[in-house]
Design brief:
By secondary structure, this protein is an alpha+beta fold. Helix content is about 35%, strand content about 30%. It contains five helices and four strands, in the order E-H-H-E-E-H-H-E-H. A hairpin with a 5-residue loop joins strand 2 and strand 3. The chain is elongated. The two termini are about 20 Å apart.
Length: about 100
C-alpha cells in the first residue's frame, strides 16, 4: 500500500527594492547569477519582476525557514542593501493537475 505524500513547504519570497533603480541595476548581473545558481541547485521553482518594477518574487521549494534566510542573505541585492525580502512559508494544499508533482517536492 502506498502512503500519500505530504506536500512539502514552499516559501514565497517577496523582494522589495530599497534604493532607486539605478542603484539596483548596478547589482542586477550578480543577482541574475545568484538566481541561476538557485535554479541549478533545484532550490528555485520560479522567479520574476513585480509589475510595476518595485522588486521581484521568487518561489523556493522546501527546506527550513533558516535555510531560506541563509539563501536570501546570499543575494547581492541584500548584501549591498538595495533590496529586502519578505519570506512567506506555506504548505500547498491544492494544485492544478499538471503541478501535482511540484507540490510534493
Amino acid at each position: 500500500m502506498t502512503t500519500p505524500q505530504t506536500p512539502a513547504s514552499k516559501f514565497l519570497l517577496i523582494l522589495t527594492y530599497a534604493k532607486p533603480l539605478e542603484e539596483v541595476d548596478a547589482f542586477l548581473p550578480a543577482h541574475k547569477e545568484f538566481l541561476s545558481k538557485g535554479y541549478e541547485a533545484g532550490k528555485i521553482l520560479f522567479s520574476g519582476r513585480r509589475t510595476p518594477r518595485i522588486g521581484g518574487v521568487i518561489l523556493v521549494r522546501g527546506g527550513s525557514a533558516e535555510e531560506v534566510r541563509a539563501f536570501e542573505d546570499g543575494d547581492p541585492f541584500v548584501r549591498n542593501g538595495v533590496a529586502t525580502y519578505e519570506i512567506i512559508e506555506f504548505t500547498p494544499s491544492r494544485a492544478a493537475d499538471n503541478l501535482d508533482e511540484l507540490m510534493m517536492s
